[in-house]
Model the fold of this input.
Amino acid sequence: MAAMHHQPDGPAFDIVLLLHVGCVVVGLVTSATAAATATRLRRTLGSPLPLPQTLRRYFRPGVNWAGRAVYGIPVFGFALIAMSQGAYALGDGWVLGGLAIFATLVLVGEGVLWPAEQRVQVALAADDEASVSLHRDATTMSRAAVAALALLVAGTVLMLAQP
Done:
């Protein structure tokens, strides 16, 4: 039976933990928002009504920096491991599982979600609402955002359970 370690604490650990959790929350919110907004865009594209300004604002060209907040998850996670005084280790199954989930999240974000979002931004900036690829990219974005959301929830459950 493995030796039981004490639960780490202290103000510095608590601050890093809050930053770690904050990055997860921002990731959850941005993924849910991306899924909902891409779905709304898809539905609006099939309508004769003009595209609402709220959608145009959301899809204005630029990098989705809020979505990239997920990169803080492993940064602060590694800091938590280092600060844990041996209570957590990189070789723990739940830590390795979390890293695998994060790696998949990065593949979904960088490989599918954010490129589709950028293509939507370019099409809308060019007023190309009739583009067949716009509908396809909005669908891709919506599905990838739901996948990212599911990965973030799975990672959260794993971190809370620490099996």
Residues 11-161 form one domain. The chain has one domain: 11-161. Residues 11-45 form the longest helix (35 residues). The CA atoms of residues 78 and 158 lie 16 Å apart.
